[in-house]
Automatic annotation (TrEMBL):
The lineage of its organism: Bacteria, Bacillati, Bacillota, Bacilli, Bacillales. The keyword DNA-binding applies. It holds the Pfam family AraC_binding. PROSITE patterns: HTH_ARAC_FAMILY_1, HTH_ARAC_FAMILY_2. SMART domains: HTH_ARAC (SM00342). This is AraC family transcriptional regulator. It comes from Paenibacillus graminis.
Length: 293
């Protein structure tokens, strides 16, 4: 069992001002259940509307929707809306189900929640050491220790959890060592050939993959399409040239792979919010040493 001293369910009923976009934490918990008396039906609960994130530390439970039934084993979570057409329960065997959970009001987090769920699915596997799960455990520990004492602390912790879960869902593994070989080789190809690349069709041919398969796999792990990554790579190189050389805008556009200065300016402004000329001069904005994309 994990940290048995933190077992418990902790509820929060702060008075968040309606005009402030605070995240409303309803409950957090670390629990272990041992038999089928643990059973929740999403259509019978009266404490909604709520969003539930529940993560298994050890053992397993069952999560059912209208479409599928999932066994939520160690390292797996489920995401559910309350009220909603779902059930979750202990399967009735002799193995304890240990889990962490968060319950919170939908607003203002519902759009992010829906985006996360569309990408990860209703019952995703998430590495125990990942940042969202570490923050989940921290929230429960803070609740156990009595340190979630006002709506601002509660909102800050919940917001941090959701941002990290959103980051995980949008970009896949951040460590390039976890990427498939084809993705790592594609990134290397872009970074080495950005000035002469035509686009993702050329990249797909180089990798021996269909354009659709490359687009789907690259986007899953990198968080960008190959063309988006190519443009960011080119603009990063252009920024280096703008700050370290006296080359003209047209010359820089050509050197980083754009066929026309006007298109280069359009892409540069879209990604940085400035034209190359204003970026170089520092007029009308901060004088950046580096921009992160």
């Amino acid at each position: 069992m994990n940290n048995p001293s933190s077992y418990g369910v902790y509820g929060f009923r702060f008075s968040e001002p309606d005009h402030l976009p605070l995240c409303n934490l309803f409950a957090a918990g670390h629990d272990v259940v041992t038999d089928a008396s643990y059973h929740w039906n999403g259509m019978e609960r009266t404490d909604g509307p709520l969003l539930l994130f529940q993560y298994t530390a050890e053992g397993s439970g069952i999560f059912e929707t209208e479409q599928e039934t999932f066994r939520i084993g160690s390292g797996r979570a489920f995401l559910a809306e309350i009220p909603g057409s779902h059930r979750y329960y202990h399967p009735g065997d002799s193995v304890p189900w240990e889990f962490y959970f968060l319950l919170f009001r939908p607003q203002p987090l519902l759009p992010l929640w829906e985006d996360i769920k569309s990408k990860l699915g209703a019952a995703p596997a998430i590495v125990p050491g990942s940042r969202p799960i570490r923050i989940l455990r921290d929230i429960v520990h803070e609740a156990y220790s009595g340190r979630i004492s006002d709506p601002y602390i509660a909102s800050s912790l919940l917001h941090q959890f959701m941002m990290e879960l959103g980051r995980l869902s949008s970009s896949g593994p951040r460590d390039a060592a976890e990427w498939p070989t084809a993705v790592r080789e594609s990134v290397q190809f872009i970074e080495e050939r950005y000035s002469s690349m035509i686009g993702q069709e050329q990249l797909a041919e180089q990798m021996g993959l269909s354009k659709f398969h490359l687009l789907r796999t690259f986007s899953k792990y990198v968080g960008l399409t190959p063309n988006e990554y190519l443009n960011r790579t080119r603009i990063e190189r252009a920024i280096e040239l703008l700050t370290t050389t006296d080359l003209s805008i047209e010359a820089i556009a050509s050197r980083v792979g754009y066929s026309s200065g006007s298109y280069f300016i359009k892409v540069f402004q879209k990604l940085t919010g400035q034209t190359p000329g204003s970026f170089r001069s520092g007029s009308g904005s901060l004088n950046y040493s580096r921009l992160f994309f």
